[in-house]
Amino acid sequence: LATGPRQDNSTFYEIRTYDIKPSKMKEFLEMINKHIHFRTAHSELVGFWYTELGAMNKVYHIWKYDNFAHRTSVRHAIANDKDWQGKLISVVLPFIEKQHNEVAYLVPWCQLGKPPKEGGVYEWVTFQMKPGGPALWGEAFRAAINAHINTGYTRLIGAFHTEYGLLNTVHVLWWNESPDHRAAGRHSAHEDARVVAAVRDSVRFLESQQNALLIPLQCSPLK
C-alpha cells in the first residue's frame, strides 16, 4: 500500500498510550511529574497528557527521535539508567494495565505547533482512513483540516500519519482555550459552508474516527 510523501528528513514521533489502573491514576501522574526528568535526559518529550473525556484513566505521551538508530540508542540508555529504572519504572509499572505505541511522521504540510498560551485543553482525534495511504485520500484530508483551521476557532498543533501500528491512521492534535471554547467553535464550523463541503468530500475515504479531551501534565512541554 502506498504511504505517500512525508517530511524530507528522518525525524519521527513515537506515540505512546497507557491504560492506568483507576485506583492508581493519581499516584501515577504524581510520579511522572516528579521523575520524568530522568527520561527526558535521554530524548525529547513533545507532550504528556491524561484524558478527561472520551476515555478514562488513559495517558498519552509523544517522543521525538532523529531516526531509528537514535531511538535504539535511547532505549539502550534508559534500560541501563538506574535512576529511571529504580525511581520511576519499577514503581509505576504495576499501575499500568496496558501499553500501546505507534511510530508516526508529521504529514508533509504540517509543522509541529505550539499553543498561544498555557492553560488550555487539547483534543486528540484519530481518523482511520481507507487503505491506500495519502496517495488516495491525502488531498481531501488536508482540505478538511485546513477548512477547520481557517474558521479560526481552533489551533492545529500537529497531524501525524502512522508508519508502525494501525496503518492508514492519522492522529490530529488540536488546542483550544477551554472545552466551552471548543464547543462554540464546533457549532460555528458546522454552520460554515466551506467546512461542510470539505468534510463531505473527505469522509468518502473515512472508515472511523474517535476523539479524546486531554489535559497536559505539569511536566509536559506542551501545556
From TrEMBL:
<dbReference type="GO" id="GO:0005739">
    <property type="term" value="C:mitochondrion"/>
</dbReference>
<dbReference type="Pfam" id="PF07978">
    <property type="entry name" value="NIPSNAP"/>
</dbReference>
<dbReference type="InterPro" id="IPR011008">
    <property type="entry name" value="Dimeric_a/b-barrel"/>
</dbReference>
<feature type="domain" description="NIPSNAP">
    <location>
        <begin position="122"/>
        <end position="221"/>
    </location>
</feature>
<dbReference type="InterPro" id="IPR051557">
    <property type="entry name" value="NipSnap_domain"/>
</dbReference>
<dbReference type="InterPro" id="IPR012577">
    <property type="entry name" value="NIPSNAP"/>
</dbReference>
<feature type="domain" description="NIPSNAP">
    <location>
        <begin position="13"/>
        <end position="111"/>
    </location>
</feature>
<comment type="similarity">
    <text>Belongs to the NipSnap family.</text>
</comment>
<dbReference type="GO" id="GO:0000423">
    <property type="term" value="P:mitophagy"/>
</dbReference>
<protein>
    <submittedName>
        <fullName>NPS3A protein</fullName>
    </submittedName>
</protein>
